[in-house]
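Quick one, probably user error.
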C-alpha cells in the first residue's frame, strides 16, 4: 500500500507538466512555434523510432566508454596522488584548475589532440568523469585514518595491497556518487562533442537534439529530449540503487556516527592485518 502510494505521488509532477504543456499549446501555440503540439511530438516519436534508437545507442556507447575510461583513470590517479605527496604537489594544482574550467572551453584543445573521430567524442566525456572521480578519490584517500595506514605498514603490506584492500573499498561510495554526477555533465559533453564534429544521420542523440533546434524542427527536438530523459532517468535510477546498496562502505569512509566509525575501523583493521 505504501509503495503504491509513493508510486502514485511520483507521477503527480510529470502529469502536471504534461497538462501544462497541453495548456500552453492550446493558449499560445499559434503565436509561439517553439511550443510543439504534444500529439505531433508523439507521432514524431513513433515515426522516427528507428533513427532515435540508432542515435541513442551511438551516444550511449560513447558515454559508457568515456565513463569507464574516466573512472579507471580517476581512481588510479586519485589514489596515486593521495598516497604520494610529491606527485600531489606536482600535478595537484594543475588538475584543480582544470576541474574549475568549463569543458566547452577545452573542446578546441581536445580537437587538436584527438582529431575529429570517435576518440574525440569519447575523450571529452572521459575527461569530465576523470576530474570528478579524481576529486572524490583523492579526498577520501588523503583523509583515510592514519592509524590504519600505520598498522598496514607495520604488517608490511605493499602499496598495491593498501590500495586494493583498504583505500579502494573505502572510496566506493564516493566513486559511485561521482559517476552518478558525471552522467549529468557527460550528456552535455556528448552533445557539444557530437555537434563539434557533426555527422548525419549517425551523429548521435545529442547532435540530433541540437540539429533539430537549429532547423526549427521542434517536434523532433522534443521527441529526442523525451528519449534522452528516459535513458538518463534509467541510468540515474540504477546508480541510485547501486549507491544505496554500497552504503555500508560509508561506515568505512567515516560518514556515519562515532560508534559505527569504530566498527568500520575494526573492519579495516582486519583488512590491514589479513595475510
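Nope, works fine. Designed sequence:
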Amino acid at each position: 500500500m505504501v509503495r503504491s502510494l509513493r508510486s502514485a505521488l511520483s507521477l503527480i509532477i510529470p502529469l502536471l507538466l504534461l497538462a501544462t504543456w497541453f495548456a500552453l499549446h492550446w493558449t499560445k501555440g499559434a503565436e509561439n512555434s517553439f511550443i510543439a503540439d504534444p500529439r505531433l511530438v508523439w507521432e514524431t516519436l513513433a515515426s522516427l523510432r528507428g533513427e532515435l534508437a540508432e542515435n541513442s545507442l551511438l551516444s550511449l556507447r560513447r558515454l559508457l566508454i568515456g565513463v569507464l575510461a574516466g573512472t579507471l583513470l580517476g581512481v588510479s590517479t586519485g589514489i596515486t596522488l593521495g598516497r604520494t605527496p610529491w606527485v600531489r604537489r606536482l600535478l595537484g594544482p594543475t588538475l584543480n584548475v582544470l576541474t574549475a574550467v568549463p569543458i566547452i572551453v577545452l573542446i578546441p584543445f581536445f580537437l587538436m589532440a584527438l582529431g575529429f573521430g570517435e576518440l574525440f567524442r569519447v575523450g571529452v566525456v572521459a575527461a569530465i568523469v576523470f576530474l570528478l572521480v579524481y576529486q572524490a578519490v583523492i579526498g577520501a584517500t588523503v583523509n583515510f585514518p592514519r592509524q590504519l595506514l600505520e598498522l598496514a605498514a607495520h604488517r608490511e603490506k605493499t602499496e598495491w595491497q593498501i590500495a586494493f584492500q583498504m583505500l579502494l573499498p573505502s572510496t566506493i561510495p564516493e566513486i559511485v556518487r561521482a559517476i552518478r554526477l558525471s552522467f549529468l555533465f557527460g550528456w552535455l559533453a556528448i552533445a557539444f562533442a557530437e555537434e563539434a564534429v557533426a555527422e548525419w544521420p549517425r551523429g548521435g542523440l545529442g547532435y540530433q537534439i541540437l540539429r533539430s533546434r537549429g532547423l526549427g524542427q521542434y517536434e523532433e527536438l522534443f521527441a529526442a529530449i523525451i528519449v534522452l530523459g528516459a535513458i538518463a532517468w534509467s541510468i540515474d535510477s540504477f546508480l541510485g540503487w547501486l549507491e544505496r546498496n554500497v552504503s555500508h562502505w560509508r561506515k568505512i569512509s567515516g560518514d556515519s556516527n562515532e560508534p559505527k566509525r569504530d566498527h568500520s575501523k575494526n573492519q579495516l583493521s582486519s583488512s590491514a592485518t589479513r595475510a
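The domain at 46-273 is CATH 1.10.3720.10 (MetI-like fold).
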